[in-house]
Amino acid sequence: MASEAVASGLWGRVLEAVREQVAPHVYDAWLKPLKPVGDLADDCQVVLAANGFSAEYVQAQLAPLLEAGLSREAGRTVRFLCRVDPESAEADLSDLGMVAEFPEVAPGLLAEGAFSRERLATDHGLDGRYSFESFVVGSSNQFAHAAAERVAEAPSVAYNPLFVHGGVGLGKTHILHAIGNRILQTHPELRVLYISSEKFMTQLINSLRFKRVFDFKENFRSVDILLVDDIQFIAGKKATQDEFFHTFNALFEAKKQIILSSDSSPKEIEHLEERLRSRFGWGLVADIHAPDLETRVAILKKKADRERVELADDVAFYLADMVPTNVRELEGALIRVSALASLTGKPISLSLAKDALQSILRTQQKSVSIESIQKTVASYYKIRPADLRSDKRSRLFSHPRQIAMYLCKCLTRHSYPEIGHQFGKKDHTTVLYAVRQIEKKRGTDPVLAEELESLMGMLRS
User: Fold this and answer.
1) For 304-325, how does the pLDDT look when each residue is reduced to its tens digit (9 = 90+)?
2) 52-61 and 63-74 helices cross at what angle (nearest 10)?
């Protein structure tokens, strides 16, 4: 029940129906506190939230669900509008405008990486498996590797900030963890923190939600070494960029080391504020390219030695030739070959490697573009490709749109931001949410699974 004042009436009935469709914590945190404003006016139901954070989140995430319920109960199309209650004691938070910059963040995601002062104080976030010793150096990454080692040897003395950029799966994350792990070994007294930009945003949201902004600022600005992965994802997020700008300044002025990674150089990150673009280039910008054939073979050999897999030169060269750009996929190909050899009891040979990588061969033979996926999905669901790129929230369009985004991630090598850009310049979190939703439903919904198989078959044929 929303409240005693609205236990009955249209809004009360809608809340009762919607309550069965959302998680309990979503209902209690976001829907229960809402206050309806009078009766329907111009077929629009206005409700009031305690602060701007809640108002913008509800409008961005829950409006389609509420509009459907209102229209069903009223027997006609009803719009939903959430505004800040001017009489609320929390209304001052509305000026922060946080949720507007996180479109379509799934309700459940707010609980992930929840802000915790104790956790930040004790957990450096580093993966001990990544080290400089396990990093294969070649002409494509030699400069970035040398700069990273220099920073690890003399943090806050050599290059500050160090900005490493390159394509997906080329070793940027490995380098950041290697720097952090080396510093922990040689300077255990220093406080090191590795975090992805997505977690930085999530913790900032939670610090505002639970009124712990001071703790958030204090913890991030008291570290000695801050490593932020995929910093490009804060672009276009005004409040997050503001907070990171002040965090950057505080650490830099205190002579603390900052290391950042991105898929693009600072100059090439779209929608990044100029003041951040400038600061990212203050120290050293080092790029990583796709590894050459010899480096890819060396990567495979080192991975095979680590996994105690016997890998002949001809097989290593074949795998390296088959996967020319992505180190992560290259190591995945080796795992696939090794698994097939283990399951069949056969030694790893060139013919076995070819059998194991048949799916990769088929994918390379048939190139699938985002445009072709959009056309195929639109035709399958009898809508227009333009509808997939629109902001229409009706299930008639949103369901095919999520499926198209999911197929783009499965069948192409485009990143989440690149896919989002092709769907009406939507945020990467929108694509991430769509992929997670379809992946989750696919295992429990046989009709959806059959639709996906049909679409994949059409696209690959």
Assistant:
1) 888 888 888 888 888 888 777 6
2) 70
